[in-house]
Amino acid sequence: xxxxxxxxxxxxxxxxxxxxxxxxxxxxxxxxxxxxxxxxxxxxxxxxxxxxxxxxxxxxxxxxxxxxxxxxxxxxxxxxxxxxxxxxxxxxxxxxxxxxxxxxxxxxxxxxxxxxxxxxxxxxxxxxxxxxxxxxxxxxxxxxxxxxxxxxxxxxxxxxxxxxxxxxxxxxxxxxxxxxxxxxxxxxxxxxxxxxxxxxxxxxxxxxxxxxxxxxxxxxxxxxxxxxxxxxx
Length: 233
Ligand SMILES: Nc1ncnc2c1ncn2[C@@H]1O[C@H](COP(=O)(O)OP(=O)(O)OP(=O)(O)O)[C@@H](O)[C@H]1O
What we know:
By secondary structure, this protein is of the alpha/beta class.
């Protein structure tokens, strides 16, 4: 297998409220390799979303080491984490998370607007139009998200996640708000992206979709304990 694009060791996450302390993750060790398609499953409350948030630098761990492409990121400030997140990670959520006030075109342009190195307008415009073309949505560029079907919104969310050519695509229940036909189409799109080289990590409750991955990780409350298909964590 190729080199790991991310590596976690002893990742722990504790949520503290006035009433209680919740150990969402205890000592997770995990490596994800370039070009892999990893799916994460497990019972409700076992820490899947917490793990995905830490993988995507939306949240920081309480303890442990986390490296993305060799850079330690577990102790970054929030603004440093945001910069790396914007350049290295793409997200696809169950609820699409598109901005209703912006057109489809402006939604997918967002990740390119916050780059440390600005991309010339002509170059980004060409890329955005090519991406819309690829998912058959060129004719909807000036529509608002709420003028699209659920399946179309998820296709736009996938484009938005990919325009910045992230090292890692994190996907949280991508078919949760779709009927089975649209769900299958979205999963086929993700499978194709992975075949084309995109590294994917997906949380899903659907065993059919989990089985499309090259590696299945099972979280058993409250930490990763077994990996039925391949190497142990
Ligand atoms: N912000 C928070 N504050 C306090 N506790 C939290 C917070 N976020 C998550 N938790 C707790 O951490 C644990 C793991 O939650 P998480 O959302 O990661 O589970 P999950 O496996 O994604 O669940 P589901 O499949 O139901 O979405 C749960 O016990 C949850 O109550």
